Amino acid sequence: MALYAFAAVLICWVLLGYRMAFGDELLPFWGKGAPALGQDFLTSRARIPESTHAHEDGTKETVEPWYPMATLVYFQFTFAAITLILLAGSVLGRMNIKAWMAFVPLWLIFSYTVGAFSLWGGGFLYQWGAIDFSGGYVIHLSSGIAGLTAAYWVGPRLKSDRERFPPNNVLLMLAGAGLLWMGWSGFNGGAPYAANIDASIAILNTNVCAATSLLVWTSLDVIYFGKPSVIGAVQGMMTGLVCITPGAGLVQSWAAIVMGILSGSIPWVSMMVLHKKSALLQKVDDTLGVFHTHAVAGVLGGLLTGLLAEPELCALVLPERTRGAFYGGNGGVQFLKQMAAASFVISWNIVSTTLILLFIRLFIPLRMPEEELQIGDDAVHGEEAYALWGDGEKYDPTKHGRVTSLFGEENPVSRNVNDAVGVTINL
Question: Into which family does the record put it (predicted)?
């Protein structure tokens, strides 16, 4: 699902999607779709809405990127691709792969491009002054809300899968978490489209918030469950990264710590406490908890940006003079704008995701058949993640060997171990 989404989004992006998200205006919330493949277009100097920056003294500076459009096309593609890959986490374990293959291009065109153009591409929310520095709304709130909506329409996994869902491999999860944390520096650090002061601030704040959130989440696990959890630490890291994203280059580093404290606690409460008490959340099977780690953390970060955005940092990258409510002036209005932008993104994703899935359901079942779910969503494709002894092959001591001592002699202990391994594998 992830590989397909990454490849399919790229082709749809260069054929139509990029200019729907960053091209000329068609509607206040949507750009005119057109290919981003022509040599003249791709080699021209990149054009971005934030070409005029306002300073506190009222003066304005025109800034033009010093890189070709092709750079911006690919950079923004990675944001679009990760949004759909995050969304996949909500429907893992039961969604029909054919339905997913139809869903990816439709959701990209009719949902993602709307949020991207509205907040980043010069649409009505951008013109109005709503802030989303690097995707807290466009990426994380969208994927969390759309994922929850999709999980509702696709239906839950088998009862046995929901009751016991251990990690496939904790070490690989940690490796992926490390890559994610490292890569987020480019994610947020690249948002100003330049290696400038604001990019440096964004990278520092990103890591400070993630570290704080990880520590808070882990501490809450220790306090309430008596022991820390590797999975919990990764969840805390994730919510910290998501929360800082809407304001990474716009808040001071002390504010990044405040955001980390809240992102390590509020999503923890929503996942560990409220989820278990909510009939709706219990009914909807969000496999990887994308709603909590991305939607809750994303909207939290957007609202906190409306409170904590620092005026001088805002002046470095935003076209209008902007400040958070904490800094007085018109900051209270900014907080309301953040609330309104979140409401639009949530509403659009619920409606668009629902309509897309209902349309697909007319032609393709959204769920895998029950007999295929019994086999498993990977085995049904004829593949196993860990086929230790091959397809249908049983443990054979003459073929696979036995545990021996350093001197090549089998002893009773090793024989017992071998017998236990053979029985386990046969079972």
Answer: Belongs to the ammonia transporter channel (TC 1.A.11.2) family.
